[in-house]
Please model this.
Amino acid sequence: MPREVRERQMMDAAVATFGQRGYRAASMDEIAELAGVSKPLVYLYLNSKEDLFTACIRREADALLAAVRAGVVEPDLAPDEQLWAGLTAFFAHTADNPDAWSVLHRQARTHGESFAAEVGAMRGELVDLVTGLLRDAGRASPASPDLGDRDVVGVAQALVGAAEALAGWANETPGVSAKEAASTLMNFAWTGLGRLLEGERWSAAVPGGRLS
Model:
């Protein structure tokens, strides 16, 4: 069997084991058994348990980013349609790969700074992608005020964080589709963004909250 095929089998088994058992509880014996190979072969191909977990994080982060980017490749779509397509792709990928999402969203964040940094790099790329879409939305709106970088990046950070939390809920709630999850977030975020682009602001110092 070609090395790349054998290695992919081991990585698939590792993602399933780490995702379902957790990093600490998962053993190299379990991973080897699930992959149908000997434990020494796993060490030969993928070194230590830490190296194997890092490789799993990187592979699944790349796959998730590729899925989201593929959802927003249509240049003729309006910014809100691109964001909708990207969110739908995000929720579809996390639903179709629950073990991978567990590795990225739960395990990697809680088992060491180096693992968390790998996920942080992925999250940064997602934020950059959303930031670009929000800037495009501002330029496309004739009534839009000049939004500062901190406004745009802050909204992008909030949107990505909300998507991560919503994916966890959607994966644990029977019957929630990727489109339903994307619609929930669009209804929550894009409506508020539309008001922001029209120049409205919320302020605790103003009766009723909003400025226009």
The chain is about 75% helix and 0% strand.
